Amino acid sequence: MKSSKFVAIALTASLLAACQQGAPGTGVMSGGSVNKQDVGTVAGAIGGGVIGSTMGRGAGRTAATIGGALIGGMIGSSIGQSLDNADRAAYNSTTQKALETAQPGQSLPWNNPKSGNSGTVTPSNYYQNADGQYCREYTQTIMVGGQKEEGYGKACRQPDGSWKIIQ
User: Do 77 and 20 share a domain, yes or no?
Assistant: First the structure.
């Protein structure tokens, strides 16, 4: 009976990990490496399954084990994903600040000490588009896992004062 509980927990954890949808080319199911969301899903599913297995008897215990694994997997996935969101929050905050206050060609850095990921945002001159909005082009560098990526974008100032990336 104990081995069937373990199989149910492992199967549920595997299915939850397979259902994860991240950016293309990331995570185990896309042929990439294990990411924080994958780890959170599996750890949550195992923990939830173990907790669920302590409740009920017979078929009720099996249902509680599977239910616990499902709920634990969803919670773990959410926690793992929110950790990755810290990188995006640091990047977005720096991008808004750079577009609003940086001189043309001045790079502003961002860093997430927990993940080790970092980058810079470097805006160019202001210009007005056909709708009269103030816009800026910018370049960015992002260092993730020791790999440097570079990008280019355009953003325009919105009526509320924020900058919206348009390209």
Answer: yes
Q: Are residues 81 and 107 in the same domain?
A: no
In a domain, 92, yes or no: no
Is 47 within the bounds of a domain? yes
Give the chain's domain count.
Answer: 2
Q: Domain for residue 80, yes or no?
A: yes
Q: Alpha-carbon distance 70 to 63, whole Å?
A: 11
Strand order in the sheet with 117-128: 108-112, 117-128, 134-144, 147-157, 163-165
pLDDT value at 15 more than 80: no
| Distances 112 to 37, 115, 140 between C-alpha atoms, Å | 17, 6, 16
Contact 49, 98 (CB under 8 A): no
Query: CA–CA separation, 125 vs 136, rounded Å?
Result: 6
Query: For the segment 146-161, what is each residue's pLDDT rounded down to a tens digit?
Result: 788 888 889 999 999 9
